[in-house]
Amino acid sequence: MINLTGQFNLNTNVVCGDKSITHRALILGALAAGTSVIRNVTLSADILSTIDCLRSLGAKIEVKGTTVTVGCIPQHEYPRLTLNCGNSGTTARLLAGVVAGLGVNAKFVGDHSLTKRPMQRVIEPLTAMGAKFVLRKNCLFELRAAKLHGATINANVNSAQVKSAVLLAGLFAEGETRYVEQLHTRNHTELMLKSIGANISVDGNVITVSKSVLSPFEVDIPSDPSSVAFGVALAVAKGVEATFTNVLLNDTRLGFYRVLQRSGANITYCNIREVFGERVGDIVVKKSVLKPLFATEQDVCDGIDEVPLLATLALTVKGEHKFGSVAELQYKECNRIQAIEHIASKCNQIASFDGKDLTVISNGVLPKGKHFSSFNDHRIAMCETVLSIIVGGGSVDNAPFDISFPQFCGMLGIAPLKLGLIGESVSDSKSPELMAHLAGKAGVCCSYDTINLPKDISDDELLMVIGSFDGLNVTMPFKNRVAALLHADCPSVNTVGKNILPTSTDGYGVIQSLRSHNIDITNKPLWIVGAGGAAEACVRELVQHGCKMQVLNRTKSHAKRLVDKYSLPVEVTNPVAILSFVPQCSFEQSLPFPDSVEFVFVADYKGHSNLREQATKRGLTVIDGLEMLYHQGAKSFALWTNTAVQNYYPQFLKEIK
Ligand code: S3P
């Protein structure tokens, strides 16, 4: 989760090496006869995927700062390889062409998103060139060693990735390979191949390539117009004047800029020069007023990754906006048409897709403080972040900026406080939503990430993770271990941070939940179910309120430890409440339910609980763990941010429903 305020401070000199060109430079460097040097490399997750795969193929790659040295993939017998392409479609599709050409047996795998993306588009043309693909579950595809021959391939989709896969395979095929494009897509592969001596020619929409010896090269990668676009969008929307330096200005990448210029944005280029066959220069943004946006099919093709950003920007401008032939957006890191519809509807505006074109209709009045879903898509998360800043505040459920643009926050001049949660299984936690709510109320720019850690992680690694956050919540099974590691003065810790002493806010959370129900437990007899970290934190707090507590736990020795440590009575009859800290289990189900009980507290807010059910049947008050989660989280957040504790539980409950 990331929460934004309306604050930003554009940093226009951020160096964000173009991702498309970097993928190609790495791959061609690994095919060239010698060692190539690539400078200004942005080590995004996608680029690291390509580096990783090329290393698996045997290329020697050295990374020093932002300079990458690439050696040639050696000719040798390859074992059956597994190439992990992560989230990167470009890695998978371009390397399909290379691996088919090299005649290597390899299985291509990727993350959840990539596994769902269409691969038939490369499988078909490469098969026509003689490649042998095998399709299996849980992988993108498998390639079996085979000899390639030239072919004429007619593009069946406007995709530079497919074109590049075919051209790269064509470097190894017997005879000539011709690729016929429908629309002219980004042409970095052709330009680069030409500069390093490949047998390649471009005649209109036909590209011809054949076996080649590629010369090693040195290249300075210009900044990525697809990344810079986020800064330009913010500058245009906020009327900020800005000059973004050393950006790639290849026409096949400038669709976003053309659409904005046509709609009245004052965007010009200067300092234009040629670098490695590519046009490079500065982008100057001056104050202007936008009219409704209109994108042709070619604009969309030349700015395919920026269409969601254009649609987002369109929401801020009153009127009807049109984007032609956007169907391809359905097959990106997420279904980006759906993502655009989600953003529009969160803003009370309309985005509609008729199977071909997209129309956005906006009254230009946007709400602030909305919580967006990024669909785990880096570019959608960046669109929503920029929009949240434009409207003066909002949050995004997940912020995978590192996939393409690790310097994103740096370029916008925002420095989110880095908060998070560690535990063994925390992916379903409600804390990110809670923190989005709290940060929105407090006007704090922060992120809150959930990190699953293996139970047996070493102390050193655990400390390293803790040290990488400004503030961290800790949950099972690490509460006691972190307390011991950080020499806390309490036995179980759920809150640590850069400028605070490790502590537990669990006990506070329980007491505060009871208080909100006007329950005073001072000196009362209680049953506590469970003897783990949260139960202990609560016992510790309740002892100070004079409560008489009996601890019930499946493992008797764990209960006894608490009894001894806090001098608790062994038995408490007629408890006024049962406070349970265990998930539903046979032990919880078999608990007696004395008539004296007036209310129950159930920490587990996700699962079913027998105690909750029985209490509801008897018409007793049930205090839900979500309420405790709210109050303990509010206390943690207040500690990290040095702000007052906030209490908006009823509103939070409405927000998350
Ligand atoms: C890319 C081409 C585009 C683009 C992707 C990068 C490339 O994909 O969306 O981010 O580097 O060739 P398609 O070829 O699928 O349009």
Low-confidence stretches: none
Q: Which bin fits the share of residues in helices?
A: 25-40%
Question: Hetero groups bound?
Answer: shikimate-3-phosphate
Secondary-structure-based class equals alpha/beta
SS element count, helices: 24
Looking across the biggest beta sheet, what order are the strands in?
Answer: 21-22-1-24-23-25-26-27
**Main beta-sheet annotation:** 8 strands, mixed
Annotation, overall tally of beta strands? 32
Mean pLDDT: 96
Strand content: 15-25%
Global shape: elongated
What is the terminal-to-terminal distance?
A: 18 Å
Please render the helix and strand layout as text:
Layout: E1 2-5, H1 19-31, E2 36-39, H2 45-56, E3 61-64, E4 67-70, E5 81-84, H3 89-102, E6 106-109, H4 112-115, H5 120-128, E7 132-134, E8 141-144, E9 152-154, H6 160-170, E10 177-180, H7 188-195, E11 199-203, E12 206-210, E13 218-220, H8 225-238, E14 242-248, H9 255-262, E15 266-275, E16 278-286, E17 294-295, H10 297-301, H11 307-315, E18 319-323, H12 336-346, E19 350-353, E20 358-362, E21 370-372, H13 378-391, E22 393-396, H14 408-412, E23 417-423, H15 431-442, E24 446-452, H16 459-467, E25 471-474, H17 479-485, E26 495-497, E27 500-503, H18 506-516, E28 525-529, H19 533-543, E29 548-552, H20 556-565, E30 577-580, H21 586-589, E31 599-602, H22 610-617, E32 621-624, H23 625-641, H24 649-656
Parallel strand pairs: 2-13, 5-6, 9-10, 17-18, 21-22, 23-24, 23-25, 28-29, 28-30, 30-31, 31-32
Antiparallel strand pairs: 1-22, 1-24, 2-4, 3-4, 6-8, 7-8, 10-12, 11-12, 14-16, 15-16, 18-20, 19-20, 25-26, 26-27
Helix pairs in contact: 1-2, 1-3, 1-7, 2-3, 3-6, 5-6, 8-13, 11-12, 11-13, 15-23, 18-19, 18-23
Bound molecules: shikimate-3-phosphate.
